[in-house]
Write a structure and sequence with these properties.
Length: 363
């Protein structure tokens, strides 16, 4: 059974896919019940009567690694298939890793303002690379561009067809300065980082990231979306879309588990990414009650200082996911879902519950 085609909403491409309006309203009304649920309970509840549901969960506890796939009503599926999921904004953590590599190679300095790398209006002031990485640049989540009208009307990815020229034109109209701003999650900021990476490496972002993922990280089933796979309703992307660096990667559980291991094991590409760069204190009371904390932020990664781990999530029109890792105790959780982020209980809530459960049992 194929899912009905849904209109993409730009907010679902951002961090906290659970912040989509429908999910917030649903969770507020069911909060007491959700707090009592186990992680598996949330999967059973979310997949109830969804014959198309395919939710894959990977857990790392020290040297132990387990993967389970759940279908309708949380029934465990026996399958050898590594399903291809959109991972949405987990793409940003890979963009941040590319920036980290460029810093190590002396191509980028986090304290430089973005106009050092892009040809922008000289009379304006711009944020630093670090502020783009930490979502403290003053930029909005995204800015309206003409293609978004037809995309919305046709149920397509809102960012489809928003070109790099459009992004540059928009940047040239902005004058946020290099002042201090609070945390505001920005797809636009990460699209801008994509332009910076293209400038310093002299290659298009898709080539850069695909080469980095396969060559440096050794992930063979991960890359910029080809808009196809074994599941349905992948987002469309055009070659050279400006927002690709913010959310266009697809992957499977095998690669995401390997990614989690790299993040925990002091890999050269991620050391500075998981370090604290800014205090943000961005969690609401409801999220804190569900152990979803954004106390500080690294290069892309949200840091839950209370519980001692880093995390990020992602959401597109019909997919949502979550990855968290505790490097000190060698614990990690990956949740990949082919259900929309605003549908019942999102992967972020399920994943945070898994992190609590495995933390209590130790590595």
């Amino acid at each position: 059974m194929k899912k009905s085609k849904k209109k993409a909403v730009a907010i679902t491409a951002g961090v906290l896919a659970l912040a989509a309006v429908g999910a917030v309203a649903f969770m507020k009304s069911k909060l007491d019940k959700i707090l009592e649920m186990t992680a598996l309970d949330t999967i059973k509840y979310t997949t109830k009567d969804r014959v198309d549901a395919v939710v894959t969960v990977g857990l790392i506890q020290g040297s132990q690694m387990t993967v389970k796939v759940y279908g309708q009503n949380g029934e465990e599926l026996v399958t050898d298939t590594n399903h291809i999921y959109e991972v949405g904004s987990l793409t940003k953590t890979m963009t941040a890793a590319l920036v980290n590599r460029a810093c190590s190679e002396g191509l980028i300095d986090l304290n430089d303002t973005v106009d050092k790398y892009l040809k922008l209006t000289p009379s304006n002031s711009y944020p630093t690379i670090e502020k783009l990485l930490t979502h403290t640049s003053g930029f909005k989540g995204y800015y309206f561009e003409k293609p978004m009208i037809s995309n919305h009307l046709n149920g397509r990815n809102d960012f489809y067809g928003v070109s790099k020229d459009m992004l540059l034109n928009r940047l040239n109209k902005l004058n946020t300065g290099n002042g201090e701003y609070g945390f505001k999650y920005s797809n636009f900021g990460y699209a801008t980082l994509g332009l910076v990476l293209e400038s310093v490496y002299g290659k298009d972002y898709t080539t850069l990231l695909n080469d980095f993922i396969s060559g440096d990280l050794g992930l063979g089933h991960t890359g910029i979306s080809k808009t196809k796979g074994d599941l349905d309703n992948y987002w469309d992307w055009a070659d050279g879309d400006a927002y690709i660096p913010a959310g266009a990667v697809t992957s499977d559980i095998e690669d995401m588990m390997r990614y989690a291991q790299l993040l925990m094991n002091d890999d050269e590409h991620f050391g500075r990414c998981r370090e604290k760069h800014k205090m943000i204190n961005a969690s609401s009371g409801m999220y804190k009650s569900m152990h979803i904390n954004m106390d500080s932020i690294g290069m892309g990664w949200m840091i839950d200082e209370k519980n001692g781990y880093c995390w990020h999530n992602g959401g597109t029109g019909d997919y949502n996911c979550y990855l968290a890792f505790d490097a000190e105790n060698q614990l990690a959780v990956v949740v990949l879902s082919n259900l929309p982020p605003a549908y019942r209980i999102p992967a972020t809530v399920t994943g945070a519950k898994y992190m609590q459960e495995i933390s209590q049992h130790g590595g």
